[in-house]
Amino acid sequence: ATVKTVATTPFSGQKPGTSGLRKKVAVFAQAHYLENFVQSVFDSIGDIAGKTLVVGGDGRYHNRTAIQTILKMAAANGFAKVMVGRGGILSTPAASCVIRKYQTFGGIILSASHNPGGPTEDFGIKYNIPAGGPAPEAITEAIFARSEKITQYRILDAADLDLDRLGEQHLGEMVVEVFDSVADYAELMQSLFDFDAIRAAFKAGFRMKFDAMHAVTGPYAVEILEHRLGAPAGTVMNGVPLEDFGGGHPDPNLVHAHDLVAALTGAGAPDFGAASDGDGDRNMILGRDFYVTPSDSLAVLAANATLCPGYKAGLKGIARSMPTSAAPDRVAARLGIPAWETPTGWKFFGTLLDAGKATFCGEESFGTGSDHVREKDGLWAVLAWLNVLAVRKQSVAEIVTAHWQDYGRNVYSRHDYEGIDSAAAEGLMEHLRSLSLKGQTLGAYRVAFNDDFAYTDPVDGSVSKKQGIRVVFEDGSRVVFRLSGTGTEGATLRVYIERYEPDAAKHHLDPQVALADLISIARDLAQIEARTGRTEPTVIT
Ligand code: VG1
Ligand code: CO
After folding, report:
1. Ligand 1 pocket, 96 CB below 6 A?
2. What ipTM does this complex have?
3. Exposed, middle or buried, 164 (CB in 10 Å: 0-12/13-18/19+)?
4. Cα R_g (the chain), whole angstroms
5. Which pTM value belongs to this model?
6. Domains along the chain?
7. 113 has catalytic annotation
């Protein structure tokens, strides 16, 4: 096999967003497009000679093609070894687990997460650092800068490898090891949670449904829930990963995980329901006729963490993204541990986890996780809930409502306006940025302050600006506005609404009702209808 040096010219817009570079498949399929980005990664991460890289993806359309290219480029650029999940499959948390366990020089994860897959849908790529987490901004910016100047890339002229055959193969000087995508991850989960207690619960008749949404978690969930924990066959729904996710939208929320929601509704429904997304890092938690808001899920798990063997010693701190509700902060205060508020995106939790300042982290966008890896972890959250349910022997609804009674409820909702005109979206954000609202009264609320959230990392001092417009009221209620950094079409406006409700008599109210006045304040402030033409959000969570 010979190394080819291929002349190329830059593509504009190879800038990683909230979680890597995400584009339509047709964009990635252009000659040199993927190669340019991968070479830009290899040129930006330091000396790779003799090192090991992990590669895998969520199995979506173009996954295998991209992996073959990356393997040949890794060989041509001097990696000694690449570890690939069998069939090219690795969930995002499993990739993080393997990077850490085998102390590799990071990994490349191929995913567009919750975005649909297929020839006309989305693809994505990101580099994770040796600690196992998404590359921090300094690195993603270096990759982008490199992509704008690139003139050539290196690739081995060789035949494709068999990604389905376990064991070692060779690509020139480089070893390619195809390994079991599930085993290391399942072992890690077993070390953190009380599998005996969960197994006993299933044996005693506890029932759940897990919706893998035809995405990457199918094989992980079947192995862990059905094989290791003894849940009945059929507990995992849509468990076979498909290149187009069965035509669905692998986003675990009330809109897209409708099969699961239907299965959890009514008297005969199972005790517990959960779903994960395209790449396995998100989770949605349901009880029978009960939905757990992700912010509450983080708070409840943190309050109950010591019931899980891996967290028996307690938590060092809790971190949440800025738009996530303050429910976890209340738990941190009670526990006497720090509560951290970071910008949106898991990459901002890495330094806190590495420094031992936080143990649990979460985002309102169905992301929950801990210091066991450096990504959010869908099945981890499911197992944490199973562990808590098995020990407390109460229903999901009982546990959450008791939590609200104890701490008060941070009533919360997110409204997404998807696919709006990009210029209109930018104009809307500029308008919000220009407002000075301090001291003004809006409906029943007085504005304490408004700003564009800026973050200084408490560990490495790096500064991230323009992370979302906050309008914070004197009673702690908030509305927050951001533009999505993961979409591939037009712009998506996210509006986050939160109000604290201490009165237990009002905890049962539908958040859309309880938040109605703040929702209309947010609409008016941002002039949503006038600027976007939209009267209603496309997705409410
Ligand atoms: C969204 C979520 C964010 C999450 C990111 C990646 O980003 O809001 O909380 O970290 O997706 O999740 P944005 O910029 O679209 O709001 V995943 O599961 O797509 O890797
Ligand atoms: Co994801």
Report:
1. no
2. 0.97
3. exposed
4. 23
5. 0.94
6. 2-181 (3.40.120.10), 185-407 (3.40.120.10), 410-540 (3.30.310.50)
7. yes
